[in-house]
Amino acid sequence: MKRFIQLMIFILLTAFCLGKAYGVLSWKDTNVSYQSCVLQLAETPNDSIDAVFVGSSHVYTGIYPSYLWSSFGISAFDMAICAMDRDSAYYSIKHLFKTQSPRVVMVDLFSLTFETHVYKEHFIRNYLTFPISEDTIPALNAYAAKDPAVSENYLDYLTRWPVFHTRYRELERRDFINDEAALAARGEYLNWAANVIEPITPPAPSTSAALSEDQLNWLKELDALCRENDASLVLMALPFQSDEDKQALIDSAFAFAEENGIPRLDFNRRLDELDLDYNEDFFDDAHPNAYGAKKICAFLGNYLKENYELADHRGDPAYGIWDEDLRYYEHRRDGDALAAASEDLEETLAILSRMKEVTAVISLEGIYQDSALYESLRILPGISEEDYNAGGKWIWENGELTLLMHNDTQAAPYIRELDDYVTLQVRFTGTRSGHGSILLGRDDHSNYEGQLSIVVYDSFLHSTLLAKEYTIW
Amino acid sequence: MSFNSIPFLCFFPIVILLYYILPGKARRLWLLAASYFFYMSWNAKYVLLILFTTVVTYAGAILLERAKEKRGKRIALSCIIVLNLLLLLFFKYFDFMLQNLNFALRLLHVQAVSSPFSLLLPVGISFYTFQSLGYAIDVYRGDIPAEKNFFDYALFVSFFPQLVAGPIERSGNLLKQLKDCSRKRLWSWDSVVSGFGLMLWGFFMKMCIADRLSIFVDAVFNNVYACGTVETVLGAAAFSLQIYADFAGYSSIAIGAARMMGFSLMENFNAPYFAESIGEFWHRWHISLSTWFRDYVYIPLGGNRKGKPRQYVNLMITFLVSGLWHGASWSFVFWGALHGFYQIAGNILKPVRAKLTKVLNLHEDSFSFHFGRKVITFVLTAFAWIFFRAHSMKLALEYIRRMFVKFNPWVLFDQSMFNWGPDRRETGILFFCLLLLLAVSLLREYKKTDLGEFLLKQDLWFRWLVFILLMLAVLVWGEYGLAFDSSQFIYFAF
User: Fold this and answer.
1) Residues 6+ positions from B395 with CB-CB distance below 8 Å
2) Which residue blocks in B89-188 are alpha helix, DSSP H?
3) 8 Å CB contact of A166 and B483
4) Which residues of chain A have a CB within 8 Å of the CB of B477?
């Protein structure tokens, strides 16, 4: 009996260790930003999602649940995976229905156009990010039936270790810790980069492309799955530069939707209503950026309100995670704006003055006193002319600038834990010597060349938003 | 179904669990069924070959035993040997013989003959053929009685832990244990724990060390013309360690698996690179094969009983056959010949070495003396391994030429060595694993115990810690499965 108990304890201990290792090694990226909508879904309170958007990168770049939340109070979620194929879309929705009862499931038809798993990495993103459940084997069987590379390595994919284990070569901090801010995101990929694209001109309507049996079955299964779970299925096509083949398939799917009473929304045919700017609103010809997503979400929000009377949950503590998502969005937006403006000191200081939930260190060293810098710095209230002339290190937090020390090697260093991972150290190590004056963890952001150094750290995002030196003369 | 495969990780627990649950007599049949299933998982058709060997040696041994006259016994034994060797020759050496025939025909300006067969080497054929022949010779010598129970004998030939890569067991050891397994309770908790530890260590050697070393070794041997002294020397040393970790790892898994079922297989490796002479090396390396050759080839040829010249001839014959046993290629034969030469030269030069020791005032009981001998033995074996690994004499000779004429020490300092496969991180892991290998080898050398038995004597917390760490090391650092690299995931257009 004693041996049996020992054996059981050993098995449990081993399972615990292997489980932990599996958690670290497993692949956690569904949208190329090292975030996983599957993990984000796991953080979502049960039965709190009202509208879910399913699809590929078109979805997570084009629909920001944070916009739908801030403008309409809709609790929405992007169940979107890079190059999502049909099987993945089906099993994603099935997975979501285990914990959620959305009123509306909007599926982007770009997934319909993936005939096979073109790239191994897409398959890995699509299949291996899902937790192991009773759907694992049917999902894998569905992939194996279409892709010989999957069936040849069936056991490797089923057990997953043989695929994941070499990730020890690329592990990062975020593999070991939960990034709470990123987990609060609702599936979207935040991106403010804009590129000029050719205006989207969808090919003329066509129904000539016959849907394959697989494609037809997929549409029927989606419809059946949503009906079983009392959710309304909507087929949509988000704006992208389509070609004739893809558009013909999408049109055929819309024809199927019409025959079967499934609502449909073809953004490519309603571009005028979106008012998209091809100079500002796209990252590339298939992916809107945050500005484009805002316009699409404005349209979608109205569509959902009008057709499904979704409740406005703003202010309801049960939906606090959408507030966190909005907070995450705002931090990312401000961080992006700060980085974009970094070459312009006035603009950088103006943005910083509006940011409340960050820690910034301002360091003045060397000869700068005769410049107009003081006038610029006054946008951050709390710096006196006397202190400015003497030089030193200040900290900007919660809208206040506080002097930490003048440039005195005898001054006690300022050391503070900014979060669980990064310690801030500020000290003066000697005139223009720089080394180790401002340390964020092991990263040295001292004044080396410039007289003014600004370092901005966001403890919510656990990231350095700006570390820049400005040469005044 | 190799040991380091998912099917084996499913197969083995089922086999062992049912083995313990089933009543006495059924156990042997269960093991036999499991062993045949294991063998057929490689290639079901080749089950006929192992059946042929089993039937021939089983029936032949009974006939041999029943023969009243020595002549009859000899005929029976000859038939067993010839039939088995014919099978082995055909499947393993047919293509090699044809290549040599064609070479001779080309010299005579006669058109070459193309192979009428497309032969795949049956897994384990060299091992089970030798094991069966050893049994027949033992019966012939009267060392053991012929086995009457066909199923017991079939299990002896096909026992899955050692079927495909040894150890080549002796009937006096394994057959007796297999027969007893239904009567006696061979199993004990200790044997399970110790066997499990040994299996884990075997997986570690094979998957973390051997397969990691192979990345560098393959890169060097596949790009000989890009190598200089440093790469060729390191490549030969790395291959020496690779083949040891690979083969000894596999043997550890086999011995551990058998031990978990209560069977004690013979030791196959005993810290071979601690040997101080080539003769000692062969007492420590692939022990089951070298003792097989000693008992069934070298001694019957006369061994060292008929004077020095004959002893040297016997040694050379034994090592030539041993080389050929390892592979159907002249480079294997040369490898065997080189080892034979080392031993003969070592024997002849013994007085010279003794004199040199005296002249140089070397202390035979000092650490430096023993260490020096170990290093020299390692260098000699590593040099011989070049022929083993190179697959052709031409490549082996080019490899050795570059070792001596392309002196390029700067590659040790300009980071270019990391272009030969393992990067800085992988090299670090490799050295860590090699340090563990050294530690366990020292344990073997000085404590005379294997890791499984050593762990058995340790406190529970330490044993569990080692088990779990070994498991994690194998699962994470092991070279297996589909290579995963998220750089493949760079998908700029999303």
Assistant:
1) B221, B224
2) 94-107, 125-141, 150-158, 171-180
3) yes
4) 168
Q: What stretch(es) of chain A map to CATH 3.40.50.1110?
A: 28-332
Using an 8 Å Cβ cutoff, are A202 and A242 in contact?
yes
Cis before B272? omega within 30: no
pLDDT 10s digit of each residue in chain A, 473 long? 888 898 899 999 999 999 999 989 988 888 777 888 999 999 999 999 999 999 999 999 999 999 999 999 999 999 998 888 888 899 999 999 999 999 999 999 998 887 665 566 677 777 888 888 888 899 889 888 888 888 888 888 898 888 888 889 888 888 888 788 888 889 999 999 999 999 988 777 665 678 888 899 999 999 999 999 999 999 999 998 888 888 888 989 999 999 999 999 999 888 889 999 999 999 998 899 999 999 999 999 999 999 998 999 999 999 999 999 999 999 999 999 999 999 999 999 999 999 888 999 999 888 887 778 888 888 888 888 888 888 899 999 988 899 999 988 888 999 999 988 899 999 988 766 567 789 999 888 887 777 889 999 999 999 999 999 888 76
A161/B483 touch (CB, cutoff 8 Å), yes or no: no
Residue B47: count other Cβ atoms within 10 Å of its Cβ: 16
- Beta-carbon contacts of B390 under 8 Å, excluding residues fewer than 6 positions away, are B221, B331, B396, B399
Largest CA distance in chain B: 85
**Distance (Å, whole) CA B111 – CA B104:** 10
Q: What is the spatial distance between Cα A203 and Cα A266, in angstroms, rounded to a whole number?
A: 13
A82, A124, A169: best to mutate for the B interface, most B CBs within 10 A: A169
CB within 8 Å: B468 and A13: yes
- List residues in chain B touching A: CB distance below 8 A: 6-7, 189, 425-426, 460, 464, 467-468, 471-472, 475-478, 480-489, 491, 493-494
Q: A28-332 is classed in which CATH architecture?
A: 3-Layer(aba) Sandwich (3.40)
Q: Which residues pair with A403 in a beta bridge?
A: A394
CB–CB contact A57 B476 (8 Å): no
Q: Where are the alpha helices (DSSP H) in A100-169?
A: 120-123, 136-146, 148-152, 154-159, 161-164
Q: Please report residues of A whose CB lies closer than 8 A to that of B464.
A: 10, 13
Optimal mutation site among A2, A121, A175, A240, interface B, most CBs of chain B within 10 A? A121
Tell if the CB–CB gap between B488 and A29 is shorter than 8 Å.
no
Predicted complex ipTM: 0.80
CA distance to partner chain A, nearest, from residue B13 (Å): 14
In order of A26, B60, B288, the CA distances from A92 in angstroms are 18, 64, 56
Nearest to B480 among A119, A124, A162 (CB): A162
Cα torsion angle, A246, A248, A251, A253, sign: negative
Q: How many residues does chain B have?
A: 494
Residue in chain A nearest B189 by alpha carbon:
A3
Residues from A contacting B (CB-CB < 8 Å) are: 3, 6, 10, 13-14, 17-18, 21, 25, 27, 29, 31-32, 56-57, 61, 82-83, 119-121, 124-125, 153, 155-156, 159, 161-170, 189, 284, 286-287
Residue of B nearest to A191 (CA): B494
Question: What pTM does this model have?
Answer: 0.85
The chain B residue lying nearest A121, using CA atoms, is: B489
Residues in a beta bridge with A415: A425
- Is-catalytic flag, B339? no
Of B283, B326, B370, B391, which residue is the catalytic one? B326
Ordered alpha helix ranges (H), A341-406 = 345-354, 373-377, 385-390
Chain B residues with CB inside 8 Å of A32's CB?
Answer: 489, 491, 494
